[in-house]
Amino acid sequence: MKWFELPHQLTYYECDPQGNLQLGMLFNLGVLAAEIENQGTGVGLGAANQLGGGWVVVNYAGTFDLTHFHAGDQIVVATRVKAFNKFFSLREFSIRDHTGHEWVHYEATFVFMDLVKRRIMTIPPVLIEQYDLAPVKRIPRVPAPSDLVVDDTWQQHQYDVRYFDIDMNGHVNNSHYFDWMLEALGAEFLQTHQLTGVKIQFDHEVRYGQRVTSQAKVADLVTYHQIKTADQGAARAELTWVTVGK
Amino acid sequence: MKWFELPHQLTYYECDPQGNLQLGMLFNLGVLAAEIENQGTGVGLGAANQLGGGWVVVNYAGTFDLTHFHAGDQIVVATRVKAFNKFFSLREFSIRDHTGHEWVHYEATFVFMDLVKRRIMTIPPVLIEQYDLAPVKRIPRVPAPSDLVVDDTWQQHQYDVRYFDIDMNGHVNNSHYFDWMLEALGAEFLQTHQLTGVKIQFDHEVRYGQRVTSQAKVADLVTYHQIKTADQGAARAELTWVTVGK
Fold first, then answer.
1. Is pLDDT above 80 for A246?
2. What is the pLDDT of residues B146-189, one digit of tens each?
3. Which residues form the Acyl-ACP thioesterase N-terminal hotdog domain (chains A, B) (predicted)?
4. Which residues of B touch A (CB under 8 A)?
5. Buried b vs exposed e over A9-34: b needs ≥16 C-beta within 10 Å?
């Protein structure tokens, strides 16, 4: 499959206090590129919604160096469908600087959600036939975060879901999970560490009016995260870091 | 003065759950256009920071109809300096759809803040000489929100400032004040009302680690807002609305 490339000039509000691309915004840009690719082949958001559903991300995993992407930079957000079957579409993403050098590479599994029944449906064939790919039996697995038991040594922060956290699919946009997860680490950690890897699994959607707990454990250069609502786990993640000067 | 025009394709993450441009994002886009205009004349963010400061917004006022700007739309964000003196720069903003029709028009007063001393400094002449304008004695006044006394009938919500609320000026980016203000109105109000006017005054900066209280009063089709920290008022606003179907 050919890469679809979205050229994009980074704005200051897509960057963090230090002027580097924000992690949540990076994933927004990836989804944007996928949407624009779909739109170009006539099966964009409008077509998906007419079929009663929307694309939803199940997991992300990959390698990240965000320090090469700054406010004002011209970057390229590239994506392509790697494999699909009746229920899953696996997409690959590559974020490159203006010279074409790749600093971020990750994969994502997408499902198609019935926006009324709020459950997974089979992917409408029209949305996927456009890709010059044959369906596969088993989708390659995106690496999952480690299974960990949360205990008293984990930090906890609570956040109320805000109206503007909700996207057009009617639930919290997955980019906000990263705000909750990173926020739990605090400014001191974020200013002295640089992200190198992400594995995240989205288990259940979060809706307007809910309160989430963001739990985090720092184990040297790996951080473990869980987002949960009152009744169930919503997402788990494992992030890897290197130390840097402030 | 000639308008500087920034063409921009709206992304889904700049829009609200209903798919219209978000108010906070609109102000981000305005500042972005001003920055890109400054950059084009060689006095962008880098030049400002080398002079030890950054542009900070003191107030906004204008008329707004955000329902004509949707995810995917090609829009134009236009801005120009209208007047300036030693301490203030008055900018005008016009947001237009792809046909050139203006749906949003507002003005903003900017000051230049010393980023170490955290106080207003005189505007370095090099940053303003570029504009083909003579300085004026008195800057035209941007309409201010009404002075109101907050009492027990006002709703109150508390928010902790998040690391990613902070911008490169080291304080909460003013677009987040709108999230706090609108959030206090609740989804029901936001889904049944459409914004027509904004007057907002930023009195004091808010920093990382602070907790803010967002106070709001709904008086039919006008809402009054105050954001305060533990020790002082940070911003006041008056918004006007019309009712719409859900």
1. no
2. 988 999 999 999 999 999 999 988 999 999 999 999 999 999 99
3. 7-131
4. 11-13, 15-19, 22, 24-25, 28, 31-32, 35, 39, 44-45, 71-72, 162-164, 166-168, 170, 173, 175, 179, 182-183, 186-187, 190, 208-209
5. ebbbbbbbbebbbbbbbbbbbbbbbb
- Give the tokens for residue A14: 């897509």
Residues of B in contact with A32 (CB under 8 A): 11-13
Q: What interface predicted TM-score (ipTM) does this complex get?
A: 0.93
Residue A233 CB contacts under 8 Å (≥ 6 apart), including other chains = A203, A204, A226, A227
Mean pLDDT of A48-62: 94
Determine the Cα–Cα distance for residues A218 and A226; give it in Å rounded to an integer.
Answer: 12
> Is there a contact between A94 and A107 (Cβ–Cβ < 8 Å)?
no
**What pLDDT, in 10s, does the model give residues B90-144?**
999 999 999 999 999 999 999 999 999 999 999 999 998 888 889 999 999 999 9
CB contact under 8 A, B162 and A179: yes
Residues in CB range of A91: below 8 A, 6 or more apart: A34, A79, A80, A81, A82, A107, A108, A109, A110
Chain B residue with minimal CA distance to A33? B11
Cα–Cα nearest to B27, from B1, B67, B66, B54: B66
In chain A, whose CA is at the least distance from the CA of B15? A167
| Nearest residue in chain A measured CA to CA from B21 | A164
Per-residue pLDDT tens for A25-52? 999 999 999 999 999 988 888 889 899 9
Model confidence at B246: pLDDT above 80:
no
Domains and CATH numbers, chain A: 1-142 (3.10.129.10), 144-246 (3.10.129.10)
A57 phi, psi to nearest 5 deg: -85, 135
What does the alpha-carbon distance between residue B96 and residue B113 come to, in Å, rounded to a whole number? 30
Best of B45, B163, B175, B182 to disrupt the A interface by mutation (most A CBs within 10 Å)? B163
